């Protein structure tokens, strides 16, 4: 009798083990694909962060050059890089040190003088405000764009406002 039961179960062990192997293979494939998606998401976040850092570095390099914030510019005028061919540029004289330029990707930067020509100085503490009646501030917006999408490096735009001390006219 035992020999009759064993003959009927001979193929069943093979079928059960093949089904278990198939289920394990499907679970492994699903886990692998999920990990690949997570790696791509992390890579995209890193590239976006890198692009934002590149754009901030361009803005910082421009802001550190105090000479570019000139009262010669009229409110609303746009100052661009020397090589910029955009028709929106009124003046082309901005430059950035070679070390601040991104090695990979394209970048564009410009600066816009805001209206009015001289604005009221922000409120200051009374102890340091003795000469504020004679000065105002000229406001500039510094823009930088970094585009590294061709090299899969991300893209970012940064705008920073800058106030520069300016003497009030007519005093």
Write the layout of secondary structure elements.
Elements: H1 2-9, H2 12-63, E1 78-81, E2 91-94, E3 106-113, E4 119-120, E5 135-147, E6 155-167
Residues in helix, %: 25-40%
Compute the number of helices. Answer: 2
N→C terminal distance: 119 Å
What average pLDDT do the residues reach? 82
Structural class: alpha+beta
Main sheet overview = 6 strands, mixed
Description:
By secondary structure, the protein is an alpha+beta fold. It has one domain. Helix content is 35%, strand content 26%. The protein is built from two helices and six strands; from the N terminus they run ααββββββ. Strands 1, 2, 3, 4, 5 and 6 form a six-stranded mixed β-sheet that branches. A hairpin with a 7-residue loop joins strand 5 and strand 6. It is elongated and about 115 Å long. 15% of the residues are buried. The model has no long low-confidence stretch (mean pLDDT 82).
Keywords summarizing the entry:
171 residues, alpha+beta, 2 helices, 6 strands, elongated
Summarize the structure.
This protein has 171 residues and is of the alpha+beta class. It has helices spanning 2-9, 12-63; strands at 78-81, 91-94, 106-113, 119-120, 135-147, 155-167.
């Amino acid at each position: 009798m035992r020999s009759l039961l064993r003959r009927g179960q001979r193929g069943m062990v093979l079928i059960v083990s093949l089904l278990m192997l198939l289920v394990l293979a499907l679970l492994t494939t699903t886990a692998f694909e999920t990990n690949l998606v997570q790696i791509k998401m992390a890579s995209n976040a890193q590239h976006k962060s890198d692009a934002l850092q590149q754009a901030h570095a361009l803005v910082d390099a421009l802001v550190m050059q105090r000479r570019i914030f000139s009262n010669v510019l009229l409110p609303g005028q746009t100052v661009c890089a020397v090589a910029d061919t955009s028709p929106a540029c009124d003046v082309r004289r901005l430059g950035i040190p070679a070390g601040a330029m991104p090695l990979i990707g394209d970048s564009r930067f410009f600066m816009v003088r805001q209206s009015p020509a001289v604005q009221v100085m922000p409120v200051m503490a009374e102890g340091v405000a003795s000469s504020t009646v004679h000065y105002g501030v000229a406001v500039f917006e510094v823009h930088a764009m970094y585009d590294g999408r061709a090299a899969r490096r991300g893209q970012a735009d940064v705008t920073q406002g800058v106030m520069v001390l300016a003497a009030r006219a007519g005093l």
